[in-house]
Specification:
binds zinc ion, mainly alpha
Length: about 120
């Protein structure tokens, strides 16, 4: 770039002109912006990583719920039908639904954090 004061060529990263010692304001500004961008990228990546972790946790708990829900449903077919067992099976179905809901929340969390993270990384 060119020094504002003496119009001599200076390297892009320098804060002062080598020829006249003039403070290169535009360079200081661009350095500040670059630092800000770095922080945004770190925060953005962190947000995405947290989203992936949250999504993973939701999926893990969802598969746990699905397993116990399946156990609840299959118990009835092994031991016949009483009112209590029918109720137990219905609870199993509710838990299965809840597991799907949990997965949906996991995917939503991941999409939202990925969107937010990419925006932060892009700097807008
Ligand atoms: Zn100069």
């Amino acid at each position: 770039m060119i020094c504002d004061k003496c119009k001599s060529e200076v390297t892009v990263d320098s804060l002062y002109c080598r020829n006249c010692g003039n403070t290169l304001v535009s360079n200081a500004n661009s350095n500040f912006i670059r630092k800000n961008n770095n922080t945004s990228i770190i925060v953005g990546v962190l947000v995405i990583v947290l989203g992936i972790i949250a999504c993973g946790l939701f999926f893990m708990s969802a598969s746990d719920i699905t397993t116990s829900a399946s156990d609840m449903i299959t118990l009835r077919s092994q031991s016949g039908t009483s009112v209590a067992e029918a109720y137990y099976q219905d609870m199993g179905k509710v838990f299965k639904g809840f597991a799907m809901f949990s997965r949906a929340i996991g995917i939503s969390t991941l999409s939202i954090t990925t969107y937010m993270g990419t925006r932060l990384i892009k700097g807008k």
